[in-house]
């Protein structure tokens, strides 16, 4: 592993990454080794299939959607390289303490990521179809279409303030005011 | 009075026996003194004295509680527990002065306490334990419960003992082991006191669960330490060998794990039992209570931690039982638990006050003050140390303010008091001092800390518990966050709590849910989400109900009362429809699911408002029902369980059918005669599809629609057969659906199409035919086809879903809330457009 020089973690790269993302060197190294483990073909990037190989991701109802988001929004050409990978994960550092907040892990960034999970056509609105899609994934099973549609309508009507039958990012943030999205969208990175 | 050492049942039986014996004796005496005469009435207090006294105490407690809450000013300032203790003190003082009863009779008896008063409280706590925060904070809770309690005990015990060498106690000698025994009982935070106080101050879930979880789980530690030191004290300090200490440590694991294990075992058995109670729903709450109590008693029998056992029993049961038992039983269980724990808590605090007034005291100012001080100091130190340790792995770190509240919330209570009372005075000479000190500490914590913690929480601006109504969007996003974080944790290989939870959930679904639930939920089906939706729906419905009280009935009154079920509906005027829907729409609260207003449009069948609303609400509950997962048995079963399958079946499906009534009929209104002819047209095509000819009795209607849904159906009258034999129609392979509930599961599809409610004989030919008809065409069935275009362009629906799910009750294109009538019109147009396609599709499927 690591034979490919282009993806070797250079020292200055490492410094750079740490500075930008707020990860410690150890965390970055750990994530790097994780990246290498996932990258079974050792080509310096992860593809959709690489990520789907993780069984938990595979069975997760939102696993594919998440990978969609990762690949399209954070990687390019359905690949994601280590740098993109680590910037993606930097979003999920816990940023409650002032010192540990970087431009990546602000509350807004996290919410934006969540919003992007719905908003796949990037029109900055969650419309009914997008919501339905997500609901179907999450609720799973064979539920009445009707039920899901009802739920979707209800959800939209809860959020939609301006009556355009879609949810803007602002409206989306509004509901999450009461939820500790900051804490929930954070994880502990081992070092 | 409350000294009964036997269970109440025992007392009653004994009372009967004694009564018999007494009667004989009395007869004998009477014979000697004067000739026996028949007494019209006899006064026989002895006969009932014990139970009577208990009942009176319960009554006094309840009345006191009721009384306190009449005055807002009182309950705002003082926690209930304080008021109850004061009441107890007053009553105790009266009894003490007047010598009405002997002291032994009203002093808290520790056996009564541990066998009767404590278990309901703990069970309630376990049953309503917020699982998510509990397991999220389990590490911290365990650390605090085990290590912190140990730390507190050792430190308090040794320091108390150390101070005997100073003149602070006024020369009274305290041995080391008794001091440690005392420390063991005094250092454990009391769940009852914590519950009583924290439920009133509404701190955030995390803080609450950390303190409360600690108070529950430290029981194992304090039980072990208490027993260990007590037996050491009996053995004598000199005779203790290392082996004893090692065994003591070992016994901790036995006590803790044993308790948990017994609890889980009984919980699982209880869940398994409720799997088979569908015919006797009345007993369901009882079964739950009895199993939990058995868990407690069993673990007490094996002298492992009963508190842990009943807590975990409650937690396990809550997970599965509520899916099995009927809605009514569920509500009853919850209510009974709340009631029992509330009254027990009341009695406990009252008896604490009562028991304080006794001769059993020996006031030692130095010792008492020292104990209070040490309890406070070591609580703060312990929390500071161990919270900081916990913060090393916690994602969400506990702040200083949290720590302060945690230390301040370390209340002592009745458990310590009861334990102090059972100390053996022959071995522990200073029992009286200990009892007094315990009472002092309890009073100090309950009064001073209990009263000031509320203002303190406000002052420090501690994050409060968010009391808000659940919103679908919040729930949805919450779930999404869980999923996303689980995935990301797996991707990044950090293996945090999210992925752990996910694994446990999968495990739970694969093994436990399969064996313990009547219906196995679908893989990947998010029951929680649906439940939330159902809850929201119910709430909205209830609000409609409340808001429209008096209005809907009026509307109903304007409608013709002459419409006969099944036949007269077509004749209803538009006027009526407008009335009711407008009324409901007008009364709809914000955020109501828009389709709610479509359900009740035709309540005119029922002349009683209540019935009307009942169906209205009931039909709305349906909406979020997953097809194979959540079991909502109809409550009518309770009454009808012995009416025979047939009858019972009809009743259970009674409501379901109501749901399908409204909008098709309204559609008919709008469509007018043209539609009707269309229906007839459709219906006429049916015999070709339907193997059986149409008949008129509702019973056969059932069989009709069933046989359509599945030709495999062979014994339509029996509800069991029917659902069992129905297998999933969707092309998804049914994963592990061992569905054999009555109405749920995929079988519901067929069941939903039954029409036992329409007892109309064949007055309307079209109707009758329709009842027996297929998906898609029957207006009764309301299976207005949802087309792919309706829902979203993204979903390509298979013919299956067209037929299968075509039970729409709402217009799909509606997302905001335009005028009701507009919607109806739109929808009916849709129906007309698609109506013709459906039967063929479903036929091919079949």
Short descriptors:
heterodimer; A: 191 residues; mainly alpha; Recoverin, domain 1; 2 domains; two-stranded antiparallel sheet; 4 strands; 55% helix; 5% strand; globular; B: 846 residues; Na+/H+ antiporter like fold; 67% helix; 0% strand; disordered N terminus; disordered C terminus
Task: Tell me briefly what this model is.
Chain A is 55% helix and 5% strand.
Describe, in plain words, how this protein is organized in 3D.
The complex is a heterodimer of chains A (191) and B (846). Chain A has helices at residues 11-21, 25-38, 48-52, 55-59, 63-74, 82-90, 107-118, 128-139, 145-159, 169-175, 181-184, and strands at 45-47, 79-81, 125-126, 167-168. Chain A is mainly alpha-helical and 191 residues long. Chain A has two domains: 13-94, Recoverin, domain 1 (Orthogonal Bundle); 106-190, EF-hand (Recoverin, domain 1). In chain A, the strands form two sheets. Chain A has a two-stranded antiparallel ribbon with strand order 1-2. Chain A has a two-stranded antiparallel ribbon with strand order 3-4. Chain A is globular and about 55 Å long. Chain B is mainly alpha-helical. Among the domains of chain B are: 1-26 and 44-98, no CATH class; 110-460, Na+/H+ antiporter like fold (Up-down Bundle); 471-534, no CATH class. Chain B is 67% helix and 0% strand. Chain B has 37 helices and no strands. Chain B has helices at residues 8-33, 45-70, 72-77, 80-98, 103-106, 110-127, 131-136, 138-162, 176-186, 191-201, 205-235, 242-274, 284-301, 306-324, 327-356, 365-391, 400-408, 414-421, 431-459, 472-492, 497-516, 527-547, 551-558, 574-587, 609-622, 636-640, 644-660, 662-671, 673-689, 698-709, 719-725, 747-752, 765-771, 788-791, 799-804, 820-835, 838-845. In chain B, helix 6 packs antiparallel against helix 18, helix 13 packs antiparallel against helix 14 (306-324) and helix 18 packs antiparallel against helix 19. The longest helix of chain B is centred in the first third of the chain and has 33 residues, at 242-274. Chain B is globular, with a radius of gyration of 33 Å. At the A-B interface, helix 2, helix 4, helix 7, helix 8 and helix 9 of A face helix 20, helix 21 and helix 22 of B.
């Amino acid at each position: 592993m690591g034979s490919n020089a282009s993806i070797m973690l250079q020292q200055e790269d490492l410094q750079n990454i740490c500075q930008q993302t707020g990860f410690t060197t150890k965390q970055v190294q750990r994530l790097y080794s994780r990246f290498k483990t996932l990258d079974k073909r050792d080509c310096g990037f992860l593809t959709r299939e690489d990520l789907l190989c993780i069984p938990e991701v595979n069975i997760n109802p939102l696993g594919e959607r998440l990978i969609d988001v990762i690949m399209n929004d954070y990687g390019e050409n359905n690949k994601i390289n280590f740098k993109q990978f680590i910037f993606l994960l930097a979003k999920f550092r816990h940023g409650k303490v002032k010192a540990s907040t970087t431009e990546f892990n602000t509350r807004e960034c996290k919410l934006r990521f969540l919003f992007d999970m719905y908003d796949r056509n990037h029109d900055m609105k969650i419309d009914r179809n997008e919501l339905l899609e997500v609901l179907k994934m999450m609720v799973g099973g064979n539920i009445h279409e009707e039920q899901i549609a009802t739920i979707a309508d209800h959800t939209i009507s809860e959020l939609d303030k301006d009556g355009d039958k879609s949810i803007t990012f602002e409206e989306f943030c509004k509901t999450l005011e009461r939820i500790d999205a900051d804490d929930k969208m954070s994880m502990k990175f081992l070092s | 009075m409350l000294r009964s050492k036997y269970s109440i049942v025992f007392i009653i039986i004994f009372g009967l026996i004694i009564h018999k014996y007494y009667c004989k004796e009395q007869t004998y005496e009477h014979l000697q003194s004067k000739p026996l005469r028949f007494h019209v009435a006899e006064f026989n207090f002895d006969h009932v004295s014990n139970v009577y006294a208990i009942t009176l105490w319960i009554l006094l407690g309840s009345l006191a509680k009721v009384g306190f809450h009449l005055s807002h000013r009182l309950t705002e300032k003082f926690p209930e527990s304080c008021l109850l203790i004061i009441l107890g003190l007053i009553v105790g003082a009266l009894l003490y002065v007047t010598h009405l009863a002997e002291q032994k009779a009203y002093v808290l008896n520790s056996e009564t306490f541990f066998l009767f008063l404590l278990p309901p409280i703990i069970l309630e706590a376990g049953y309503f334990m917020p699982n998510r925060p509990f397991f999220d904070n389990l590490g911290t809770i365990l650390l605090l419960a085990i290590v912190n309690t140990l730390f507190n005990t050792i430190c308090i015990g040794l320091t108390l003992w150390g101070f005997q060498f100073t003149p602070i106690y006024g020369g009274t000698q305290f041995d080391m082991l008794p001091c440690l025994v005392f420390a063991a009982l005094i250092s454990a935070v009391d769940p009852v006191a914590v519950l009583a106080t924290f439920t009133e101050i509404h701190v955030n879930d995390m803080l609450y669960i950390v303190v409360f979880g600690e108070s529950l789980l430290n029981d194992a530690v304090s039980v072990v330490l208490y027993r260990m030191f007590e037996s050491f004290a009996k053995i004598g300090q000199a005779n203790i060998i290392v082996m004893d200490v090692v065994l003591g440590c070992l016994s901790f694991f036995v006590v803790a794990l044993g308790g948990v294990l017994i609890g889980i075992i009984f919980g699982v058995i209880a869940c398994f039992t409720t799997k088979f109670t569908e015919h006797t729903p009345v007993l369901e709450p009882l079964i739950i209570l009895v199993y939990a109590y058995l868990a407690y008693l069993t673990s007490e029998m094996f002298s492992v931690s009963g508190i842990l056992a009943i807590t975990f029993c409650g937690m396990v049961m809550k997970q599965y039982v509520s899916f099995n038992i009927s809605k009514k039983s569920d509500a009853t269980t919850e209510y009974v638990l709340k009631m029992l724990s509330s009254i027990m808590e009341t009695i406990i605090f009252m008896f604490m006050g009562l028991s304080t007034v006794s001769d059993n005291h020996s006031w030692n100012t130095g010792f008492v003050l020292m104990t209070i001080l040490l309890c406070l100091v070591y609580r703060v130190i312990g929390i500071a140390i161990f919270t900081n340790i916990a913060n090393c792995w916690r994602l969400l770190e506990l702040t200083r303010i949290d720590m302060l509240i945690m230390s301040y919330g370390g209340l002592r209570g009745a458990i310590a008091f009861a334990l102090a009372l059972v100390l053996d005075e022959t071995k522990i000479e200073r029992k009286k001092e200990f009892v007094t000190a315990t009472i002092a500490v309890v009073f100090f914590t309950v009064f001073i800390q209990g009263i000031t913690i509320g203002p303190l929480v406000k002052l420090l601006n501690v994050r409060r518990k968010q009391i808000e109504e659940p919103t679908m969007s919040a729930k949805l996003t919450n779930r999404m966050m869980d999923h996303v974080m689980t995935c990301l944790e797996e991707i990044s290989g950090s293996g945090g709590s999210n992925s752990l939870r996910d694994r446990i959930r999968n495990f739970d679904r694969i093994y436990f849910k399969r064996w313990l639930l009547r219906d196995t939920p679908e893989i990947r089906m998010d029951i929680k989400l649906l439940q939330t939706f159902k809850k929201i729906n119910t709430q909205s419905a209830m609000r409609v109900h409340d808001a429209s009280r008096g209005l809907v009935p009026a509307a109903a009154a304007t409608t013709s009362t002459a419409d006969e079920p099944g036949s007269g509906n077509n004749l209803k005027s538009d006027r009526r429809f407008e009335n009711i829907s407008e009324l409901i729409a007008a009364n709809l609260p914000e955020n109501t699911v828009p389709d709610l207003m479509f359900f009740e449009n035709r309540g005119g069948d029922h002349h009683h408002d209540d019935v009307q609303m009942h169906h209205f609400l009931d039909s709305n509950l349906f909406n979020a029902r997953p097809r194979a997962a959540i079991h909502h048995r109809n409550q009518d079963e309770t009454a009808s369980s012995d009416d025979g399958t047939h009858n019972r079946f009809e009743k259970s499906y009674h409501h379901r059918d109501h749901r399908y009534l409204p909008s098709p009929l309204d559609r008919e209104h709008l469509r007018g005669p043209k539609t009707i002819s269309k229906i007839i047209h459709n219906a006429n095509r049916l015999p070709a599809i339907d193997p059986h000819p149409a008949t008129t009795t509702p019973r056969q209607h059932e069989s009709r629609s069933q046989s359509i849904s599945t030709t495999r159906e062979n014994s339509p009258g029996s509800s069991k057969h029917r659902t069992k034999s129905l297998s999933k129609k969707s092309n998804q392979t049914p994963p592990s659906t061992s569905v054999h509930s009555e109405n749920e599961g995929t079988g519901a599809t067929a069941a939903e199409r039954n029409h036992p409610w329409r007892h109309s004989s064949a007055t309307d030919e079209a109707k009758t035919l329709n009842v027996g008809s297929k998906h898609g065409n029957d207006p009764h069935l309301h299976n207005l086809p949802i087309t792919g275009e309706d829902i979203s362009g993204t979903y390509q629906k298979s013919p299956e879903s067209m037929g299968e799910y075509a039970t729409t009750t709402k217009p799909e294109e509606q997302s905001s809330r335009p005028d009701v009538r507009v919607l109806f019109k739109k929808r009916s147009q849709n129906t007309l457009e698609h109506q013709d396609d459906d039967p063929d599709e479903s036929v091919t499927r079949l």
